[in-house]
């Protein structure tokens, strides 16, 4: 499967997601969540880079506001991203607890995450955005592919 196809499928699945999603770490009462997300990805084959814009809509607290604010403060400026739901929430720096492990975090070890700010949209919802930059995308995909294959083979062997 090519990167173009992967990104196209990802955009189709993630654009307009309207499920309460996690904004980093395991969500207990009091975490920061959001109602929807838009993901726009651009792959530059000549530079072997991937740039992803993540826009979170309807940021809110699921429980005590102070706990959600504390969570966002811990994550600010760190490499904590949510892409599509709790399964794809990554805390690469351990800002909210233990850092994420597995083949995806290893493949993204050198990625940069830049917070782009918070604002109110025209409907009065709190929104935020992040820019994720990944160098050496071909190598990251190779690592992800090899790691996924190893994990799947290990699971099959354990059955």
Topology (SSEs and partners):
Layout: H1 3-14, E1 21-22, E2 31-34, E3 36-44, E4 49-57, E5 60-62, H2 65-75, E6 80-82, E7 89-91, H3 103-107, E8 112-120, E9 126-135, H4 137-158
Antiparallel strand pairs: 1-2, 2-5, 3-4, 4-9, 6-7, 8-9
Q: Which descriptors would you attach to this protein?
A:
159 residues, alpha+beta, 4-stranded antiparallel β-sheet, disordered N terminus
Give the mean pLDDT.
Answer: 74
Q: Give the helix/strand class.
A: alpha+beta
Query: What form results from the Cα inertia axes?
Result: globular
Strand line-up across the major sheet: 3-4-9-8
Q: Give the uncertain stretches in residue-range form.
A: 1-26
Largest β-sheet summary: 4 strands, antiparallel
Report the radius of gyration as a whole number of Å. 16 Å
Task: Kindly estimate the percentage of residues that lie in beta strands according to DSSP.
Answer: 25-35%
User: What is the number of E strands?
Assistant: 9
Query: How many helices in DSSP terms?
Result: 4
Q: Could you spell the SSE succession in H and E letters?
A: HEEEEEHEEHEEH
Helix coverage percent of residues? Answer: 25-40%
The CA-CA distance between the termini, in Å, is 27 Å
